[in-house]
User: Which sequence fits this backbone?
């Protein structure tokens, strides 16, 4: 299906809403029925019609169709946050006594779910270095129900061979879930590589304006319907119509924004790699990246988000650099119009800082929609301060 058709037309039956170019926000909590039989049939299968916007909603459905098609998937659910999407994807596929194999250092709230919440219900997790398929083979137990992937990771950009993991999991009857937030569906499609559930935070590139929080799950219709009928409806974590409308708006410019961000990132990385105060730049599409060949195989491109290790013998120098930035904002997340930076040491107590640990000197940078020189000049003036 052509990407221009998906973004601009798919799911938009304009004759149903006055031929308006932009779809309406159906800000209705519930929907009426003409007969008792109509209501009875709706209750029998709420996945097939509109009853109450905690479930299906017309504005949200337009977005669902577009996101499923972009991922090459049969169906989609949209949640009110990425964390909610992750929770539903995992919870729907485990029961008491099950085991999960997860990559090391996943998203913080994913890690908390595996370590703090699921053990209360008898579900255990083994964390592995996912860069090697043999580590998955060794970690799988007779009760392993889910393999959880994050490719690339959003700090060190470790990748997993998605096709190899999917093949292994299918042979063992294990469900695979991949967090695809770094790439989005435009630059990587886990479903097409055999992964069962692809998830991403729509807060990032899909929204694109730092004004919406949302999460996405895509997969087979059977899988998505299973999640809808249980976790999605019971937890009540579906996205609201207005936020869905904002995401539809964000999709209109997604390819253009990603193209601009990708070009800018290449220039910013070139500057940092040539600066004597930068020890290393970590980015999947740099030829010196350990998994560069796998990145080229699985991903159409790399963009926006990368990390660099600054030369700093004390934490104060990192703080001076970050505090001296005039235009690049210090904040979590990425994918919006604005460039952002976050130092790893912000989650480390000052007394625990170890200059010999490259991870403590790591800084994550997201290049937004500003011009490359605007970002580079800001980095340069801040580096001079240390």
Assistant:
């Amino acid at each position: 299906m052509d990407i221009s058709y998906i973004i601009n037309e798919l799911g938009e039956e304009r004759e149903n809403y006055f031929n308006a170019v932009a779809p309406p926000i159906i800000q209705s909590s519930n929907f009426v029925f003409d007969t008792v039989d109509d209501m009875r049939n709706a209750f029998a299968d709420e996945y097939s019609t509109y009853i109450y916007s905690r479930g299906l909603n017309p504005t949200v459905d337009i977005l669902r169709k577009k996101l499923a098609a972009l991922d090459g998937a049969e169906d989609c659910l949209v949640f009110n946050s990425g964390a909610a999407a992750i929770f539903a994807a995992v919870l729907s596929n485990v029961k008491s006594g099950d085991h999960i194999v997860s990559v090391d250092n996943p998203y913080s709230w994913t890690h908390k779910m595996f370590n703090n919440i699921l053990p209360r219900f008898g579900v255990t997790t083994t964390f592995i270095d996912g860069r090697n398929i043999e580590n998955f083979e060794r970690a799988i137990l007779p009760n392993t129900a889910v393999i959880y992937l994050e490719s690339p990771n959003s700090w060190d950009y470790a990748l997993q061979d998605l096709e190899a993991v999917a093949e292994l999991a299918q042979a063992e009857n294990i469900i695979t879930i991949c967090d695809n937030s770094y790439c989005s569906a435009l630059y990587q499609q886990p479903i097409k590589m055999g992964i069962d559930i692809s998830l991403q935070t729509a807060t990032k590139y899909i929204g694109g304006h730092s004004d919406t929080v949302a999460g996405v799950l895509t997969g087979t219709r059977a899988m998505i319907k299973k999640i809808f009928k249980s976790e999605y409806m019971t937890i009540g974590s579906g996205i609201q119509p207005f936020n869905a409308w904002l995401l539809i708006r964000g999709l209109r410019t997604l390819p253009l924004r990603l193209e601009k961000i990708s070009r800018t990132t290449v220039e910013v990385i070139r500057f940092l790699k040539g600066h004597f105060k930068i020890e290393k730049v970590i980015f999947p599409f740099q030829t010196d990246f350990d998994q560069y060949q796998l990145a080229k195989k699985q991903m159409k491109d790399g963009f926006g988000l990368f990390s660099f290790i600054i030369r700093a013998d004390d934490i104060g120098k990192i703080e001076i650099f970050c505090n001296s930035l005039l235009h690049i904002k210090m904040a979590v997340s990425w994918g919006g119009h604005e460039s952002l930076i976050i130092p790893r040491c912000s989650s480390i107590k000052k007394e625990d800082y170890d200059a010999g640990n490259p991870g403590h000197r790591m800084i994550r940078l997201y290049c937004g929609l500003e011009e490359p020189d605007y970002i580079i000049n800001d980095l340069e003036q801040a580096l001079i301060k240390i």
Summary: Residues 30 and 151 are 39 Å apart (CA to CA). The radius of gyration is 22 Å. The chain has a mean pLDDT of 96.
